[in-house]
Amino acid sequence: MRRPVQRLGQLGVIALLAALTFSPALAGDSVSFISARQASAEPLLDPLGPVWESLAPTQVTLYPQASLIPASDSGGVLNASVRALYSGKTLALHIEWPDATRSATRGVGKFADGIALQWPLRYGPGISLPYVGMGHRDAAAAQWLWRADGSMETLAAEGFGTLTTQSPDGVMARGAWRDGKWQVVFMRSFAPLTSGQHVRFDPAKQGAVPVALALWNGDAQERNGKKHLSAWQVLRFENTPANEAYFKTFSATENGNAENGKRLMAEKGCVACHSFPGNAAQPTIGPNLAYVGAIHHLDYLLESIMKPSKIIVPGKNYSMIQSGKLVSLMPPLEGTKQERRDIAAFLQTLR
Questions:
Q1: What CATH number was assigned to the domain covering residues 27-248?
Q2: Per residue in 245-263, pLDDT tens?
Q3: What is the pTM assigned to this prediction?
């Protein structure tokens, strides 16, 4: 009996790219180290303050959310400039990105511009990162969401449709739109929190923390899942120890033949379910793979091919109940280790 068509969807936890040293950009230019400069005074919330201009920015690329419906259809990639400062008590991040139209009103048919910073609730050696799009079951992600109408929320989720408001954690945010650009500052104390799903910072013990960005363009009717998002980045606290062994566990160690992988995508039936550049059929059964190479790391791509039911992203047609358990409709790929490497290498070219 013929097996079901293989599917390479259900891309979940983003494996954080790393290198042996803290370089400005990592493999595929998808993940960058954002340097948080140590300040003697408390950071200021003013996004137009001169201190931010004095810091060298890290460029973070955000991609249209294409995997799930509703997908973003407002154009190509966006680049945001990220700067960070920290004191003994406080962390502040400054994000700047282009937006030709200031959309600051929410109402019927109107949506405000917005930005969210996403943090894993748990991170460190041996801990997998949450799915970059709102986390996944048993791997929650915290969200700091600012909208151009001035509202600010602290949220948490374990997957799409599970977003919940959290108790106040002291996060403050302020934005300013000028010359076709938004500039927003987020600021929060390092003080330990005793309740709620909140990210914990401890620069003295963990000198870096994963963070991801999401942007909404209100003028383009973006809201909820219609957004641009980045891969996981690394916020690195200056003058603190870093667990290099932890980052080494997420580094890409296997390479494959992308051309052979493209051929295997057709041979294994992946083209029947997934849209991606170069697939003339452009089916809609499985998630669109247009940007998976930019958002997802090689190690996770390999894992999702071998164990598609380990992390299942909610979505129509993506899963079913089998023997009382939720499983992916995509069976594990039948093939050699090298074939899995080759397919993953091809997926990395999709960006």
A1: 2.60.40.1190
A2: 666 555 454 578 999 999 9
A3: 0.85
